[in-house]
Amino acid sequence: MKKNNTIIFVLICLTFVCALASCKSTKIEPSVCSPTAIVSIYGNSSLPWFVPLDKMQSDDDNEGGGMLSGLVNRALGTKDPEIQTVDSRIDNAAEMFAKMVEDKLGIDVVEHSVLEQSKMYQKNSSSFLASVGDNVPAEGFKVIETSGSKFNKMVEKETGTKSLMFVNFMFYKEKDYVGITDINAFARTRMTVRVVDSRGRNIWKKQYSATSRTGVDYRNGKWDKEKLCTLYPEVVESVINQFIVDFKGESLEKDLIDEPAVDSQEEEPFISTEEAVPIAIPSSVKQNNDESETSTDSEITE
């Protein structure tokens, strides 16, 4: 009885590992995505403090402040460097993303003017809530959080592209100790990239995070806001580079956060390229297996 249970357990584990490993076999070739159109790219209207995982009080932490926050930031932030630099921060991020996709991924990015000629894109206008909310689009872009396969396929047809990209940045500032007692404020960002293939399907949606290597002195609730704002190009380049390397299927030590794709009901499952994690067989099972009359190899290696 023990022998049969052990064999069944091992077979289940092997099946599970093989299922996970099959995800790795599905690789996206960047060349099949060229040319592409960056449909939407936007960021948040302020620099909230990043909330570490162990101090989060709700799932809404680190997710922006919504419409009220956007209105307040626009009304009261006219003299705040962190608010004044919102447009330039997201515009620079948009320019850097397009350039790195072309230079490092080898994917041609069509001019935004080509996208603007798409009738389907023109119909998908930004709502009033989007225009006054916490999300700020890069110059010339719209805030498009979700899109269905009908929209995707029509935009691709009208622009002559083989893929579409949707990009969202969340900019934060983060406090951390430097040494034993000193505290610094660091620049931090999280970038979400969604890629749609030539059939209008979501094939990629992942998040990438980075924190600046240096910070500014934080003392008695005060910090140099202007100097902090100069640190964001570094972290933007870092998260874009993480995406580039990940999309190409190369290896890079990085802080990678995966999320399931959230889209309209027309969305099809996206393809993941995550490494399968081997499952270790409990020692008790190995022992029982060794004691059985017929030996079964229960060790699973990478």
Could you list some keywords that capture this structure?
disordered C terminus; 38% helix; 11 helices; 302 residues; 21% strand; 6-stranded mixed sheet; 2 domains
What does this structure look like?
It contains 11 helices and 6 strands. It has 302 residues and is of the alpha+beta class. It has 2 domains: 1-26 and 276-302, no CATH class; 29-258, no CATH class. A 6-stranded mixed beta sheet has the order 2-1-3-4-5-6. Strand 4 and strand 5 (202-218) form a beta hairpin. Helix 1 packs across helix 11. The longest helix has 24 residues, at 2-25. Residues 17-25 and 253-302 have low confidence and may be disordered.
Summarize the structure.
By secondary structure, this protein is of the alpha+beta class. It is 38% helix and 21% strand.
What is the CA-atom radius of gyration, in angstroms? 23 Å
Compute the number of strand runs: 6
- Overall spatial form: globular
Total DSSP helices:
11
In N-to-C order, the SSE pattern is HEHHHHHHEHEEEHHEH
Give the topology.
Layout (H helix, E strand, L loop, with lengths): L1 H24 L10 E9 L21 H11 L4 H4 L1 H20 L6 H5 L2 H5 L4 H5 L2 E3 L11 H11 L3 E16 L3 E15 L5 E17 L6 H5 L2 H16 L8 E3 L24 H9 L11
Parallel strand pairs: 1-3
Antiparallel strand pairs: 1-2, 3-4, 4-5, 5-6
Helix pairs in contact: 1-11, 4-10
